[in-house]
Amino acid sequence: MTTWLGGIAYGLGLTGYTGALRRLGVNPYLRWVTALLIQILLLYGFAMGGQLTLGIRVVTGIGWDLAVLWFLLGLFHRGQLPFVGLHLFDFWMVALGWAMAAVLARSPLVHYDNFSHWAVMVKFLYFTGHLPGAADHLISFTSYPPATALLITHFLHWTRFSEGLMLVAQFGLIWAAAYAVFAVLRDRTRALTAMILCLTIAGSLVFNVAIRLNNLLVDLVLPLLAVAALAGVFVYRRRPWLLWPHVALFTAGLLLVKNSATFYVVVLAGYALVVSWQNSRGWARVRQWGGAVVALSAGAGPFLLWQHHVQTTFTLSKHEISAQAYQHQLAGESPQMLLRIGQHFLRHVLDWHQLSTQGLLLINAVLLGAWLIIWLVNGHRNRLWATALLIDGLMLLYDVSLLGMYVLSMPYAEAILLDGIERYRASVVILGLFIGAMVLVRIIDATFYEQTFEKRDSRSFTSIMSKNAYQLSTLVAGFFAVTLMYSEITGTTFTNRMNRNTLPRQLARTSRPWHHLNHRKVLVVDEQAVDVDDYYAGYVGRYYYFTDQAVGQENFMLSPAAFDRVIQHYDYVVIPEHHRTFTVLTQKVYHQHVVTGLYRVHRHALERQD
Fold it and tell me: Among 174, 165, 167, 103, which residue's Cα sits nearest to residue 496?
């Protein structure tokens, strides 16, 4: 019950912000994601000042005050907002979004990167109330910006600490960004164009299959925030007083999600500059470009502040962006090694069996097919072919930058394996998918026989055949939009069941998690050698027991004396599943029958902890 009340309190604060944004002219479909980014930036300011907990209360309190203000004004019929109506896509978003959130609320975290950074960062912020400092060795990737962690911590503060609620909070940001795509529709009452966008949202999750929604990684967050940013630029193209604050806000938000968001910011800035140039003349263009400089500078400011914080706080930071770090990386790699990385990369990109490559081919096929059909059937000249070329160009630029990341930022052992390449490339495929869909629905609407919205009804078709084609296309798009989203929901449920015997779930059955940051030495006895070799066991132990001294070990082929020395090095030992060698040795050394559980290490015994 406390969780529900806290969720309502959080939601009330958020609606206060959305109401204020509506009254300032922000598009109704952009208000949710815009409000979330504003809250993130406010929390970021408090966190940089060392007052995160206070910031959460202040930011939410402002929302409550605004919500009360709008309610009181409404009682006196002052400052009321026009009702934008409910459409087919609203019901699709609410119904399937709610179903997805319900599944995520019961989902555990399993993916490696949750425990190497994303989830552990949320846990650190939630229980310490401040950003990590030089003495906090629990956080390994200290250069990663904290935007999503701040958003999740904000939500958990009013509900409770839960892995499932972490996923719900991040899904809220994803769904709010996806909702922004409907802002580009010319006529929101048309079911066909609305269902095409719903199908695009559901289809994007197919290319997110490498991580799915039940993980805190930001590979889906980045492209969807970029899509929302691009939709806003289009909507505000003739309103510079909204355009440039929008660009500044989304630039800051993207850069504070992850360092690699630079590519998306470049795309956003390029599109904003083109749009402002097309919609202004003479000195107005100079003012527009001046606004662009101010907006992009303001948007980059929070990230530059973060970079300064990282460089002045930490002596060494993984994946840090700096010329010195890149020079050090290149110094350790020979030209032959760089050439081999490039060859592996090119072979992967050109392999049509890869999902990301198939996605790019699908986007091209749909856009070029639609271009040809519209041209031949309706005689409308359109630029869908140019959109396909643009998306191909973006993919090429991203591949070049991605290759640079493997060369400059990754150790050779990881780079030669192209570690994570599919989920990285899938992000840009998702961006291209939405760009193509937004352009497509605008062009489809422009080809309708009746262009006056008020006159559109069941009889406003050129022929019965065109009406039947419209209805059939709508049914097909709607069917697949629902089916793909349902597939994601059931797929996540199935994955949760399959993950019951993974190491994080075993620890949850073995002992209670620790919530006080500590430096106790914890040994995770793991039956799976691969979990130890890739440090997964250690990262899971660090997260679960909230200590920077957790390590995993699988091999215990030791003499009793050597075994005793190893055990005495630790404060606690946890055995998530039966390890035969460990059980035999504890019987010999400590005369105890140990199977699973958490044990405190004493000089001559292991004491089981409840």
Answer: 103
CB neighbours (10 Å) of residue 604?
9
Range of the domain at 124: 2-307+481-495
Does residue 459 lie in a domain region? Answer: no
Beta bridge partners of 609: 598
CB 396, CB 360: distance < 8 Å: no
Domain membership flag for residue 520? yes
Residue 51 is classified by DSSP as -
The count of domains in the chain is 3
Q: Which residue has the tokens 């090429």?
A: 396
Q: Do 15 and 65 belong to one domain?
A: yes
Sites in the chain below the pLDDT cut of 70:
1, 316-334, 379-380, 448-463
Give the pLDDT confidence score for residue 460 in this predicted structure: 61
Residue 377's pLDDT is 74
Contact 229, 511 (CB under 8 A): no
What pLDDT is stored for residue 270 in this prediction? Answer: 95
Q: Are residues 437 and 551 in the same domain?
A: no
pTM of the predicted model, to two decimals? Answer: 0.93
Task: Enumerate residues 6+ apart whose C-beta is below 8 A from 392.
Answer: 360, 364
Which among 470, 495, 520 is the end of a domain? 495
Could you tell me if 326 and 252 lie in one domain? no
Q: Are 209 and 158 in contact (CB under 8 A)?
A: no
Indicate the DSSP class of residue 116: I
Pick the closest to residue 150 from 322, 313, 302, 265 (CA basis): 302
Q: What is the pLDDT of residues 272-309, one digit of tens each?
A: 999 998 888 777 778 888 889 999 999 999 999 999 99
The 3 state secondary structure assigned to 450-509 is CCCHHHCCCCCCCCHHHHHHHHHHHHHHHHHHHHHHHHHHHHHHHHHHHHHHCHHHHHHH
> Are residue 300 and residue 338 in the same domain, yes or no?
no
426 vs 52, 347, 352, 420, 433, CA distance in Å?
34, 17, 14, 10, 10
In this structure, the answer to whether residues 378 and 527 fall within a common structural domain is: no
Contact 259, 321 (CB under 8 A): yes
Shared domain for 108 and 230, answered yes or no, is yes
